[in-house]
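User: Can you help me understand a structure? I only have the sequence.
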Amino acid sequence: MNQMTHKERVIAAINKQDVDRVPLSIWYHMPHKDQDPISLAEEMIRVAKKYDFDFIKMCPYGNYVATDYGLSCDFFCTPTQPVKERFFRDLTAEEWENLPVFPAIYGTYGKTLQIAVETRRLLKQERDPQMQELPILQTIFNPLTVAAKLVGMENLNKAIKTCPESVKKGLEAITQTQINFINANIEAGVDGFFYASQTCREGAVSREVHAEFAEPYDIRVAQAYEGKTYFNVLHIHGEKTYWDIMAKYPGEVINWHDRWVAPTMADARKLSDKCFLGGINESAVFGNPEYTADQVTAHVGEGILAAGKKGLMIGPGCVAHPDSVESHFYAARMACEQYAR
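Assistant: Let's start by predicting it. Here is the structure, written out as tokens:
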């Protein structure tokens, strides 16, 4: 089979066609770079080139969606210590009702939009034509997750019980902000979105609450990119997820902690015909110095064999540790080559 470009390989995987090797990307937070869009764009591109990744999943800091709404965070700006919330807000009913709708260029949203702008600009300057077209994904979160990041899960569940209609008005504002942000990122040249939910699971909200306070807003956000970008990933975060719910959202690819959270990829094949992204246990195997490079190659190979090389991309179930063992990146790349044969 002729060698594919990164973009061709990704599109073939999405369409469940043959690939010359299984597409790969591994992402992790870069807290020493993520407060400057240009620095972060440069570092993400450097890493993608170093390990021959097939796409870039952009990694703004995880709380960027709540900072403009008043979340207080500590910024350490070291290579291995991500941004951490200092304290959550505890909104009154009136404050829920008066959450603003932000334009995409406002505050931290604007800075995160600039990451996409700079990444695409710098890629266009690359000499290698296939790097110029390297797919890039912007990270977004569903509105209920944004609310949880702002006030904390405990305060959010309390507000849902005590002032549900006020919370809905807040979610409406967050939804429109997300849509504004999506539209601007499409203009900036992203190829899709990494749409993450940290609330589609037991321990966050019940299925009944999710149906009322998440799904209507989630679908509207997903519809903002549907048909406009070709590479959209649904990230179902955590354990005991409502996988069956989110897997039906608009999006071409599903990503979850498949190596340690149900369903397995083999079982998921019976539930969805979408492309899968996963195969790496980022919490126990990848980046763990107790594992050799050969063991990581075998680990990734197991994921490929379980899922089948069609309709598959290899990546972590969530962010890898920023201090991961360098040889493990090469080992994962080797597995995508070897097991595709």
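Now, to help you interpret it: The chain has a mean pLDDT of 97. The CA atoms of residues 233 and 253 lie 5 Å apart. Let me know which part you'd like to focus on.
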